[in-house]
Design goal:
The chain is an alpha/beta fold. It has a single domain, classed as Phosphatidylinositol (PI) phosphodiesterase (TIM Barrel, Alpha-Beta Barrel), CATH 3.20.20. Helix content is 28%, strand content 15%. It is built from eleven helices and twelve strands. Strands 1, 2, 3, 4, 5, 6, 7, 8, 9 and 12 form a ten-stranded mixed sheet that branches. Strands 10-11 form a two-stranded antiparallel sheet. Strand 3 and strand 4 form a beta hairpin. The longest helix is centred in the C-terminal third of the chain and has 17 residues. Bound molecules: 2-acetamido-2-deoxy-beta-D-glucopyranose (4 copies). One of its GO terms (biological process) is lipid metabolic process. Keywords: Signal. InterPro entries: PI-PLC_domain, PLC-like_Pdiesterase_TIM-brl.
Length: 378
């Protein structure tokens, strides 16, 4: 076992070789980028970003503490506290007043868990970006067959399209940045150009004409398995895109997104975010911890992961492991949030449908069935 101290030293040394830079340099402008002046000069692909898995699906009063919620705090609180990647799922739904087609952020199905319209959520993100001009953030949306043009319409309605980062090529990732060549812009450059929002959609047929800032996730990224139900079963091997050997993933220039969250397997194949181990899952050390997983994967990939996705981001606190990897000792401008499991949030009862504008008979029936099943299990 490493001691905490040697582990930190190792992480720092690793960060140095992984980015090929001997030290983080303070920004010439004197500002803090993504909560630190030391990150301004770093290319986008050499920073590790904390990601909120299922960012809009909350386990709080608004969902009567749904056991399907993945976060205790809203997207705005997540961003305030240092989260810089927001992940969610888009589904075609309808406006509750007009009945017209409308994209929503639903968890698995809009009948079960509807976190509202994509437009409203993007507006929330945009307002935060308006008032935090030195922050670069990434959105990752799981797609269900929506075309780039329809997404672009919603991005434009929320007036967030103007922040979109447009890479030189939309169909090929650049090679990784290294000591001699930076292939992605630095955070400073992205902030100066006000192209501070990187959007990945999985999957997406890119549309350079209409939506040059909407990027297909699998062109630009690879990830390890996401469906893990045991703290000893986290791995670093590529899971998606399918059939991508590790060596190829490393050489392709795709950014590595490390999934690090646990599901709790229930009866009938139902999985809910696993609250039982989250204080260890999101911690710097311990079996199945974020810190251990980051160390293992960085060793294997020889590069710090660009993104790490966690549930209940505040617990751990997960941001600590990310700060260590980014060599940020003194973060600037974050708002405090409790690092504890939120009381009431660990309850096991079904409140998922409450936010849904239209709960179908099937949805209610299924919820009742699931509630009965869960009460039998527990
Ligand atoms: C740095 O990146 C450039 C561009 O991808 C590549 O040509 C070069 O070989 C790399 N250098 C090192 C030391 O890896
Ligand atoms: C954990 O991984 C091991 C080895 O791959 C596998 O045999 C086992 O079934 C997994 N356990 C769970 C609970 O997924
Ligand atoms: C996690 O929570 C359990 C139960 O509350 C506690 O016994 C354990 O010490 C905690 N571990 C950490 C690393 O906080
Ligand atoms: C945040 O919490 C830390 C640790 O409890 C404390 O040292 C710091 O002063 C707090 N910062 C703010 C702005 O409340």
């Amino acid at each position: 076992m490493f001691t905490m101290y040697t582990r930190i030293l190792f992480a720092l040394a690793l960060g140095t070789f992984a980015t090929g830079r001997s030290a983080n340099l303070p920004s010439a402008s004197g500002r803090a980028c993504n909560n630190s002046p030391l990150l301004c000069s770093k290319p986008y692909d050499t920073v590790t970003y904390l990601g909120a898995h299922d960012s809009p699906y909350l386990r709080d009063e608004s969902t009567t503490f749904s056991s399907f919620g993945n976060q205790f705090f809203s997207t705005t609180v997540q961003l305030d506290a240092g989260v810089r990647m927001l992940q969610g799922q888009i589904h075609a739904s309808s406006n509750k007043d007009t009945g017209q087609r409308e994209l929503h952020l639903c968890h698995t199905s809009c009948d079960l868990f509807d976190a509202g319209s994509l437009k409203d959520w993007l507006l929330e993100v945009r307002k935060w970006m308006d008032s935090n001009p030195n922050e670069v953030i990434t959105i990752l949306l799981v797609n269900n067959g929506i075309k780039a043009k329809e997404l672009e319409d919603v991005y434009s309605q929320a007036d967030v399209a103007r922040y979109g980062y447009v890479p030189p090529k939309i169909d090929t990732p650049p090679p990784p940045s290294n000591e001699t060549e930076t292939t992605w812009p630095t955070l400073d450059e992205m902030i100066n150009r006000n192209e501070r929002l990187v959007s990945f959609i999985s999957p997406l047929v890119p549309d350079a004409q209409n939506a040059p800032y909407l990027l297909d996730q699998w062109t630009f990224m690879w990830e390890n398995p996401y469906l893990v139900t045991n703290p000893s079963n986290f791995t670093c091997l590529p899971d998606r895109p399918e059939d991508l050997p590790l060596q190829e993933a490393k050489e392709s220039g795709r950014l590595f997104m490390m999934n690090h969250f646990l599901y709790w397997q229930q009866a009938f194949g139902i999985q809910v975010p696993d609250i039982r181990f989250v204080n260890v899952t999101n911690a710097w050390e311990g079996p199945g911890s974020l810190g251990e997983h980051l160390m293992t994967c960085s060793g294997m990939v020889q590069r710090q992961p660009t993104f790490v996705l966690v549930d209940f981001f505040n617990v751990g606190p997960a941001i600590k492991a990310v700060d260590i990897f980014n060599k940020v000792d003194v973060p600037v401008g974050r708002k405090n949030v409790t690092s504890n499991v939120v009381p009431g949030g660990a309850g096991m009862f079904w409140g998922a449908a409450r936010r849904s504008a239209e709960v179908s008979i099937w949805g209610v029936g299924f919820a009742v069935l699931a509630a009965v099943v869960l009460s039998m299990v527990l």
